[in-house]
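This part of the workshop introduces the protein records we will be handling. Getting from the letters to the tokens is the skill we practise here. An example says more than a description, so a record of this kind follows:
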Amino acid sequence: METPLGRTLGIAKALANPARLRLLAVLETGECCVCQLTAVLGLAPSTVSAHLSELKRAGLLLDRKDGKIVFYRLATAPDAKPWLKQALAGIRADGQVAADRAFLERVRAVDVQTFCAAGPRWKLLPAFRPAKAPASRSAR
């Protein structure tokens, strides 16, 4: 059985990483799959998965599997809520968190099945291609 001290230490360690705090901030806006989170953080899938595992082990995240896609969301357990509330309040005004959330909107605009199927080539999807410059008209 885990002691209160051990549980508190596990949660504190899970929160003591900028990438994990960014993940929590992104997930505050709703459930995301690993592919989406990897794109938003710009980290390797194995790195993101390790961070997600640490947050889940600390009781701060829940996951569900839909076929091959794993989705994560913030935990709703009463003992997790105060930790999440405090951590998220502390980073809400951070510029990186705001940029992550803005980019997540673009990611969520793509169907999750399509996004995940693209794998590391998600940047080639139409939603992420640079906008074409308007054709210039030559003056006569």
Q: What stands out?
A: The chain has a mean pLDDT of 93. The CA atoms of residues 35 and 119 lie 7 Å apart. Helices lie at 4-15, 18-27, 34-41, 45-57, 81-91, 95-108, 112-118. The first helix runs from residue 4 to 15.
